[in-house]
Amino acid sequence: MKISRRGALKITGVGILALTALPRMAFAARNSLRSLRTGVQPGGKTRLVIETATRPSYSLSYPANQLVVTLPNTAANTGISPKLASGTLVKSLAQAQSGDTLQIIVNLNKSIAPIQKSQIMVLEPNGDNDYRLVLDFVAGTGAATAAPSVAATTPAKKSTTPAKKYIIVVDAGHGGKDPGCIGRGGTREKDVVLSVAKKLKTKLDANGFQTYLTRGGDTYLKLAERAAIAERKKADLFISLHANANPSRKMKGFSIYTLSEKASDEEAKKLAEAENAADKIGVEGFTEFEENIRIALSSLQQHAVAEMSEEYATGCAKYFKKSSIEQQPGPDVRHAPFAVLRSTVPGALLELGHLSNAAEEKLLKSSAHQDKLVAAIVKSVKNYNFDV
Question: What is the pTM of this model?
């Protein structure tokens, strides 16, 4: 592939591109490449993740046995090493810079069909990642042209009743001998979240989802047992419901968390430690994860699950705010090592509010406010892209 009159492509062993004899670039690109990686998704899909410093614009084209991703106003980064997973359709990845436009050339084992918009995501930054353009694709035909087939900044999504019954596992936190936090008025976290969980199951089932509860009564469950239920049910999404407490009685509002080995802030770290400590109520201490779950939690799998979890959590925060549900000051999505989220199922932990705040304690135990929370969560689930 020719780049310019003075440039040439050079591919090294693991698919890293070196730009040789290129003229000095006289432009200041507004964006820059941060990383490239591939992975395997359910259904035999190959996933390509292109990480950039700012939100990317892009277009796609499909030469024979190639996918070319064109990123305008973006600078190449030849210092990165693409992370190529085994078992994908990708043989190698290369970068080609022309003026202020960067092309990512994906050399494939087989031609692929044009990628549908439903298989494309642009994810917001989280903890350790910047913006990510995520493309999922399978082998196919009808894509032997170099003309761009997609040009967009963010794929459109629809709010529809699912054509298939996606499986949702709703986890009401705490239970049994573990009451969770208790408000000044005596409201127990375990009771609030169980009430919300039951209402949420009813609404999700009515909207065409297949919903399971980790507990349908006042039952104590280990955190790993909750995660294992999502695994056994082959869930498409796991939602863990909680209510918060804070030393400051003035603190109020919802907060949403996803799994990360490194907490996004000190408060997230302390909250994870408090929630994880629920397992210590049992005489036998922490339950070890089943071997198959530990094996499945490879770094690649964790990264893919983290990206899908982040997408859901971001959407959930959006619908909470659209519903005029007050948010705790801070980022839309926080990250911490919650034991209950350690599984191969995408998921998020939702702190619905603060029982330590007198006004919010009254709200959380009111049926009308619980219905408001449930309606927002249902919207977030209906708008989540399960097919990625």
Answer: 0.58
Most confident of the ranges 114-123, 136-145, 377-386: 377-386
Distance CA 349, CA 338 (A): 8
- Burial letters 144-172, b for 16+ CB under 10 A, else e: eeeeeebeeeebeeeeeebeeebbbbbbb
Residue 43: exposure state from Cβ atoms within 10 A (0-12, 13-18, ≥19): exposed
Residue 269 pLDDT: 60
Q: What is the number of helices (H) and of strands (E) in the chain?
A: 7, 18
Residues 6+ apart with CB under 8 A from 130: 34, 51, 52, 53, 54
Residue found under tokens 């302390």:
270
- Residue 44's domain is classified under what CATH number? 2.60.40.3500
pLDDT of 118 > 80? The answer is no
One domain for residues 226 and 372: yes
The residue behind tokens 């969980």 is: 197
What is the rounded average pLDDT of the residues 368-379?
Answer: 98
- Two structure tokens written together for 192: 């609030």
Q: Does the structure show a pLDDT above 80 at 45?
A: yes
If asked whether residues 171 and 148 sit together in one domain, one would say: no
Q: Does the pLDDT value for residue 85 go beyond 60?
A: yes
Q: Which domain holds residue 75?
A: 8-152
- The pairing of strands 210-213 and 255-259 is unpaired
Q: Which residue reads 């609030």 in tokens?
A: 192
CATH number for the domain harbouring residue 368: 3.40.630.40
What's the total number of domains in the chain? 2
Going by C-beta distance under 8 Å and a sequence separation of 6 or more, which residues neighbour residue 245?
181, 354, 355, 356
